[in-house]
C-alpha cells in the first residue's frame, strides 16, 4: 500500500487550524484540540499507509471531528473554521469508506 498523503495533508490542515486559532485569537483550547486531533489523524494516516491498511482510527476521528465542528457550524453559522473543517471531515469519511472499505472490520465479514 502506498503512503496516505491525503490523510497526512488532512492531519496537517487540522493541526494548522488549531495553531491559527491560537495565533489569531489567543485560543488555547483551539490550539490543544487542533494539535491533538491533527496528531491522532496523523497516526491514522500512518496506519492507513501500512499493509494491510487499518482505517478505523482515522475514520473514527473524522466522524468525531465532523460531529463536533458540524454542531459548532450550525450554532454559529460561520463557515470558517467550523464549516470548513466539517466539510473536510465529511470528505475524509467518504474517502475512507470508499478507499478502505474492504479493510473495515464489519460484523459478519471474515477477515
Verbal overview:
Pfam families: Tmemb_14. One of its GO terms (biological process) is regulation of heme biosynthetic process. Keywords: Membrane, Transmembrane, Transmembrane helix. The chain has 111 residues and is mostly helical. The two termini are 18 Å apart. It contains four helices and no strands. It has one domain. It has helices spanning 5-25, 28-48, 56-76, 79-99. α1 (5-25) packs antiparallel against α2. The model has no long low-confidence stretch (mean pLDDT 94).
Can you describe this structure in just a few lines?
By secondary structure, the protein is an all-alpha fold. It contains four helices and no strands. The chain has one domain (5-100).
Q: Pairing-aware structural class of the strands and helices? A: mainly alpha
Largest sheet: none
Per DSSP, the total helix count is: 4
Strand content: under 5%
As a whole number of angstroms, the C-alpha radius of gyration is: 15 Å
What's the helix and strand layout?
Blueprint: H1 5-25, H2 28-48, H3 56-76, H4 79-99
Which descriptors apply to this entry?
4 helices; mainly alpha; 111 residues
Amino acid at each position: 500500500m502506498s503512503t496516505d498523503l491525503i490523510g497526512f495533508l488532512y492531519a496537517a490542515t487540522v493541526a494548522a487550524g488549531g495553531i491559527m486559532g491560537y495565533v489569531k485569537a489567543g485560543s488555547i483550547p483551539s490550539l490543544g484540540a487542533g494539535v491533538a486531533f491533527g496528531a491522532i489523524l496523523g497516526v491514522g494516516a500512518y496506519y492507513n499507509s501500512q499493509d494491510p491498511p487499518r482505517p478505523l482510527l482515522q475514520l473514527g476521528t473524522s466522524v468525531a471531528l465532523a460531529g463536533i465542528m458540524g454542531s459548532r457550524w450550525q450554532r454559529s453559522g460561520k463557515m470558517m473554521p467550523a464549516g470548513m473543517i466539517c466539510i473536510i471531515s465529511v470528505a475524509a469519511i467518504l474517502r475512507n469508506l470508499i478507499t478502505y472499505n474492504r479493510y473495515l472490520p464489519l460484523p459478519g465479514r471474515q477477515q
